[in-house]
Every structure is written in structure tokens, then in C-alpha cells.
Design brief:
By secondary structure, the chain is an all-beta fold. The chain contains no helices and eleven strands. The model has no long low-confidence stretch (mean pLDDT about 95).
């Protein structure tokens, strides 16, 4: 089992920044990749960003390219999401996801609210 705990969410004004963290624990030695998804009220969960274990491949959803940056410290089993130039449409619950041991694990989510 892998446990994921997100932190860093909150309320910010449009144009501001937040940094999310996701700490993994448990059977993390075979983590293949980690990433972030988000879900706004009434909408489907969407991909935000992903990173492989070596850190040399990162992926972003079209709506966040150029504004968000994912990074990881897999020695500490932690992944970060730096969010800049936030927009009201970025408001959502942000979930951390890990692919490890051939399984997919999710965190409980952290709320990000961007006011206009």
C-alpha cells in the first residue's frame, strides 16, 4: 500500500501563486510516476501534471502549460506543484496520484480556491 498526503492548498487571489506538496509513504520503492489531477464542482477529474521517477519527463495539461511546474524529490517520496498566475478557473480540489507496484493510488485532495 501507498499513502499520499497533499498539502499547500488554500485561498489566493487571481494572479497569485501556491505550491502544493504530496508526500508518499508505505511501499514507495517501486513508484513509477506521480502526478496531479484536479476536479472542480460539477466537472470531471482532469489531468494537471505528471512526472516520472527519474524526473526527466514531465507532462502538463493544456490549461496549465506555462503556469504550473511539477517537480519531485523521490528520495523523499515527495512531489510538488508550483502554481503561478492562478486564475479563478483553477479553483478545484487537487489530487495527488501515484503509480506504484502496478497499482494507482490517490490522495484525499486539497482545496485550491482562486478569487477574482
Amino acid at each position: 500500500q501507498v499513502q499520499l498526503v497533499e498539502s499547500g492548498g488554500g485561498l489566493v487571489q487571481a494572479g497569485g501563486s501556491l505550491r502544493l506538496s504530496c508526500a508518499a509513504s508505505g511501499r514507495t520503492f517501486s513508484t513509477y510516476a506521480m502526478g496531479w489531477f484536479r476536479q472542480a464542482p460539477g466537472k470531471e477529474r482532469e489531468f494537471v501534471a505528471g512526472i516520472n521517477r527519474s524526473g526527466d519527463n514531465t507532462y502538463y495539461g493544456d490549461s496549465v502549460k506555462g503556469r504550473f511546474t511539477i517537480s519531485g524529490d523521490f528520495a523523499k517520496n515527495t512531489v510538488y506543484l508550483q502554481m503561478n498566475a492562478l486564475k479563478p478557473e483553477d479553483t478545484a480540489v487537487y489530487y495527488c496520484r501515484s503509480i506504484a507496484n502496478g497499482l494507482v493510488y490517490w490522495g484525499q485532495g486539497t482545496q485550491v480556491t482562486v478569487s477574482s
